[in-house]
Sequence to fold (940 residues):
Amino acid sequence: MVALDQSQVKDGVDQETVDAVAKLSGKYKYGWETEIEMDYAPKGVSPDIVRLISDKNEEPEWMTDWRLQAYSRWEQMEEPEWAMVSYPKIDFQDQYYYARPKSMQEKPKSLDDVDPKLLATYEKLGIPLKEQMILAGVEGAEDAPSEGRKVAVDAVFDSVSVGTTFQKELEKAGVIFCSISEAIKNHPELVKKYLGSVVPPSDNYYATLNSAVFSDGSFVYVPPGVRCPMELSTYFRINAENTGQFERTLIIADKGSYVSYLEGCTAPQRDTAQLHAAVVEIIVEEDAEVKYSTVQNWFPGDEEGKGGIYNFVTKRADCRGDRSKVMWTQVETGSAVTWKYPSCILRGDNSQGEFYSIAITNNMQQADTGTKMVHLGKNTKSRIVSKGISAGKAQNTYRGLVSMHPKAKNSRNYTQCDSLLIGDKCGAHTVPYIEVKNNSSRVEHEATTSKVDDDQLFYCRQRGMDEEEAVALVVNGFCKDVLQALPMEFAMEAQQLVAISLEGSVG
Amino acid sequence: MVARAALAKAKADLTADRLDGLTSPDGAAWAQRARSEALARLTDMGLPHRRDEYWKYTDPSSLVAPVAPKAALFDNDEGPAFDGVDRIKIVFVDGVFDAESSSDLQAEGLEIERLSEATQRDIHWAKELFGVLEARNAQGAVPRPMSAMNTAFAEDGVCIRAFAKVEKPVNLIYLHKSEASDAILHHCVKVEAGAEVTLLETGPAAARFSKVMEVDVGDHGAFHHVRAQGRDHERRAYTAQYGRLGEGSTYKSFTLTANGVLTRNETIIELTGDDAVTHVAGAAVGDGKDFHHDDTVFITHDAVGCESRQVFKKVLRNGAVGVFQGKILVQPGAQKTDGYQISQSLLLDDDSQFLAKPELEIYADDVACSHGSTSGAISEEALFYLKSRGVPHHEATNLLTLAFLAEALDEIENQTYAVDLHERLANWLNRRN
Fold:
């Protein structure tokens, strides 16, 4: 709030918007910490730590070797410097790469066995009882009493709970939804085939580090022709309890299948910055469709920029089959530094990629985010809609690539990125790369940073609306096309975001 | 730090190779200081490499090679541009001043002097400009070693100072008569408060040409710049124009580029006085696999109420490559900025490429900035419409291509120049059919 009150707000941005942005990103309500006894691996990263993580997850040898190879590649690599973000150099040897609650050493068999502190944590996060059981790692939660189920179904994040609750139903449909460590044990043939096939272990600095030290994550396999009967979801919290600092997600949508996947995340408020380097790989086969939605709400650091999460994430979808489709939707409100480019490789003919993003930065936050659309197949289509909102002293950058390869005949791309600045001490930037290598494809890029159009306002005023109404109407659509792409399960968060009333922004 | 160290080493080697054999000219103390500082900057940055961010779409290797690649002379079947215009002609043949072909350099409201002479004088106004805007480098994060090299080694060029509104344009004519010429020219232009001058530039210049122009426009002054880069097929050029604008001043520049193996035109303009206006436009037409054209434009808004407008159009065919990189930077406090940028390409066949990086970097909240970039083929519907009205295919294509380029040509205020360049474009298209 402080930063916003001090700076001058331009005309046309209504106070409600300003307050809502401040409320949303100024006060972090998930900032508390659960005190619980933990098992840590020694500080730092080394081949021994990599082996230890692999060992703790009871992984087969091929997996350990894979990690070790990634580690030796990582040692040769240099930290990327091209993003428009600045932060103190990270000491990779001064942090823990593995942390597990002591009580999780043996998987609890029932709710009664689960550490009450863990239960309390999830309760506090507003995740229903049923989900508490599942997130706390209870085996056999799907057979728990029905009142739990009711709560799960009613809750915002119910799909996480439902996802595991209806494991039997998912199994009946042939869908595999489990943690990646379980998948390595139970479905090695699938993991072997697909892991690292979209984001190779040596892809980039943080992805390579992740390949070496990822501790857990989610695994989804949807067999041919199956429409996943419910939305799947994972909720990540960085806390002592959670080992999700380096998580790895692998989603495989086989021919003609469909799945919608949700991701949420929060972290406690601390003075020192924490690193979160995740990798998400999605494989989309012929005629399959994947929707991936994220509401990213990691701790953003305080008003002076102390603490917060460094969110350095590699997300990529490979549309391998013809007519495959992938859709990324992200709402980025948290993290001190974000470095994230969910991308689409449109390999199959007639495949489609979509990217919808709202990035809100406040105080000292920095976000450098965007997407890559690599068109390789014929008649491929992509659409990018990015809205950046900057307040306080924050810096918000859209960075994207649209590449039309010579063989991607008759392909289309449409890109729109709009920025809104609240206050005169923040920044909004656009860095698009456009590479067109054939003439039957069309690429259109548009970006604006501006105030509400006076002509449109005049038109509305002339029809008898007052100034505020007119502004609201004219800019109503600013974020709507992104929010509309979000699944129902994120309705609560989306609603809060609508309250930001981007109605007050730009055209 | 393996890769970064290797790149730095490669660039240092490249620079050492290029500098070997180049000698800095003599001159007065101020000029020598500017040159040695430029050399220090160059050594510090190193010559550009394909792996540098702002050279990723254009391979600089032939621009930085120790010896300029040969360029066959081109038999120009068209008359020289702006032939009918009453103007002050300043002719350079392969980068060497040609006094005989040039006009008398005395003109009302103007002070024109060759750089080689100006830099000999202990006191000269060019001291405030030579190497100064280039070193200022409004967007410092982007290194411009090619410009620094030009400042350090340019033996000649012109210094033009305008005191009044001057009607007669100054025309720099660059002739190319030697297959192996490697020319470096550096111009300084000072438009005093309230003055106005038009600068025309024509011709291919040399087999390899490096040109830097620094332009300081005083309060309420106006600078008009129209250039036609020659039709030589094999020439290579690196050009940079640095502009600094005072309050209420104007800077308008248009460039037509036809052919050429490699052209890199950089424009770096800084709006430092309130209510200044700059329009930068370009039309480039290229035919053939060896055509590579690169417009790199950086506009910095550092004052209130300024306007900038960029319009760049490219027509590419038979494997030609067009590049556009541009950034509008709005500094904190540069409120009421109006920034506009459009870069478009028309790909006439499937082999040609358009590579673009249009950027916005904005630190002020009360601004209207937009950019657009499109790429595609000629509209089938428009073509069909014309053909259904009996217009032959190639004529219809030319008509639509000219219409596409017209938006950039419209940026030229003076109709005489606009018509001349329009005809040249039409001829270029006709010759290709």
Remarks:
- The mean pLDDT of chain B is 92.
- The interface with chain A takes residues 1-4, 53, 332-333, 335, 345, 347-377 of chain B (CB under 8 Å).
- DSSP finds nine helices and 20 strands in chain B.
- The CA atoms of residues 115 and 218 of chain B lie 21 Å apart.
